[in-house]
Write a structure and sequence with these properties.
Strand content: 35-45%
Order of helices and strands: HEEEEEE
Oligomer: single chain
Helix content: under 10%
Radius of gyration: 13 Å
Distance between the termini: 10 Å
Strand order of the largest sheet: 1-6-2-5-3-4
Number of strands: 6
Length: 97
């Protein structure tokens, strides 16, 4: 795993440039081992978040039961995200630090 002491590597990490996962349906989606989700973008219609497990519950707002408008991106650090319908969202990955 890359060290985040390099500015370029750090910027890649916080912007989710380590890949992504497509979220749809009502099952929880988790990132690969060693990663967290750092951004969530609704892509087809408004995306309603049923549950989102924050990596550190005191540092980021709880987005559970919130609607993310199509095209909108929210940032945080989540270890699991669950939608409420068949709408689609992209969850961007970064190393777990």
């Amino acid at each position: 795993m890359a060290r985040l002491t390099n500015t370029g590597t750090y910027n890649n990490a916080v912007l989710g440039q380590y890949g992504s996962k497509l979220i749809s349906g009502t099952s929880p989606v988790t990132p690969p081992t060693g990663y967290v989700f750092v951004a969530l973008q609704a892509i087809e219609a408004d995306f309603v978040v049923d549950a989102a497990v924050r990596q550190n519950s005191t540092d980021f707002a709880d987005i559970a039961l919130r609607t993310i408008a199509k095209g909108q991106t929210v940032y945080g650090r989540w270890t699991s995200i669950t939608g409420t319908s068949g709408d689609y969202a992209i969850a961007y990955l970064a190393p777990e630090v």
